[in-house]
Input
Amino acid sequence: MRYVTKGLASLSTILSLLLSTVQAYGWHDKTHLAIAQAAGFERWYSAAAPDVAKSRDEFRPVEEKNHYFNNNADQKVTEKMVMDQVARFNKPDDDEGHLYGAIIGSVRDYKKLSATGKYADYPLVFTSHYIGDLSMPLHNTAYDTFNKERHSINDGVIECNALNNIGYIQRSIYEIKIQNEEDLAREIARVAELTRKLGALIRKENRNMTQQEAYTQIIHSASLFRAILAYVGKNTSC
Output
């Protein structure tokens, strides 16, 4: 029994080390695609591409910090917090992450590129992905033991059925009006705060998200992304 106990302890240590080095992805691919498709984005089939880019060693240091915000202080998310992150967009030296600023930054990239008359959809692909990560609770809370151990299973809560429920997501989308960047920052903060609170709840109750909770979350993302598409003058496909 002593040998077995020691073996289990060693295995636990190894698993803990593995979990601490594993990359934190947002929703799994099909869930990201479902959000973008429900919002009416023509390039919805590319919505998982930012995670593909992040998997390459040469791109990871720059890209991965755009996908999360480790809210270690568990602070309420505000419009100011969102705007304070914009300068950190694409900056690798930021252990905390800057998901909120990345959304603003990618929208700015689209508007800047679009103004030149060049093909500009790729920044919106990144925007769609970041907007998806915005509603994933474990991308808006501290990357602690709870987060590491439960991250993957929560990423995939609705992975098997999300693309089969596009109609439900679309019917559940609610209206958001964005007329300027201040409106955008405020809406990012609103969704992030709802997401942070859900993250705190599942952590307190020591559980994973339910499917209904996950759908509620991605509906926030789809609603916000549709509003962003309208804000930048991009026609939706539905």
Remarks:
- The first helix runs from residue 2 to 21.
- The chain has one domain: 25-231.
